[in-house]
Write a structure and sequence with these properties.
about 50% helix; globular; 5-stranded parallel beta sheet; about 15% strand; 5 strands; single chain
Length: about 150
Amino acid sequence: MKIALGCDHAGFALKETVLRVLQTAKHEVIDCGTCSCERTDYPDYAFAVCQQITTGKAERGILICGSGVGMCVTANKVKTIRACVCHDSYSARQAVEHDDLNVLCLGARIIGPALAEELVTQFVNASLNVEPRHAARRGKVQAWEDAHFK
């Protein structure tokens, strides 16, 4: 799977862990930065990752900042992006299965490397559940997005 990866300065150390996990699992990673602990603005990296997805260069994305929240809010401003902060394994898997999550957001000041590894593994190994009840709910969200996002 092609996965775009991005972080701000607060997420840089955890990004190295996530990168290793993805590469070990033989995923193709598009590193959208940042490349140091020097202070940066998270929206720059959130938009860079989202652009990789919206242009079809990546299938999914992972964003890391201090809490995960800033990245999540920013990513969800982009049409077709469905981003969520996940700090437990169930949510990281279930959000893909039920809600077609395509961007996982992590808080480097909230979780450690071991939990990040588990969350990333759950996220990338999850598949969309095509049961009618889930598809109908996703359809309602898609209809809203189509009507309100330009």
